[in-house]
Amino acid sequence: MSTLRNKVQLIGNLGTNPEVITLESGRKLAKFSLATNEIYKNNKGEKVTETQWHNIVAWNKTADIIEKYVEKGSEVAVNGKLTSRSYETKEGDKRYITEVVCSELLMLGK
Fold it and tell me: Per-residue pLDDT averaged across 62-80, rounded?
């Protein structure tokens, strides 16, 4: 059961082209948003699609693959873990963000 702790698996489509950054240390970072859809029928029998957006970050070789082969609209499967962090804006406001740190990426579709 310990392998199930803090594990996230998502299948969805990229909402934007990935942003890829090479840090001073030489490490590569890729960031993108991923949309997942849940389709169900409401109590009136109408089909409803609910979209959730997820912030994804990937490092090093995974970031290399994303940079070369993945673009807006691509369908991918992501395996990773949830992380939360905070930062301060230029105005001094504290912001919080939750991201999925991608450890594996599988390209789906065409």
Answer: 97
The listed CATH number (3.30.300.20, 3.40.50.300, 2.40.50.140, 2.60.40.10) that belongs to domain 2-107: 2.40.50.140
Domain ranges across the chain: 2-107
Q: What is the pLDDT of residues 1-20, one digit of tens each?
A: 667 789 999 999 999 999 99
Q: Could you tell me which residues come within 8 angstroms of residue 108 by beta carbon, excluding any fewer than 6 positions away?
A: 11, 75, 76, 77
Report the residue count for the chain.
110
Provide the whole-model pTM: 0.86
d(CA 82, CA 100) in angstroms, rounded, equals 5
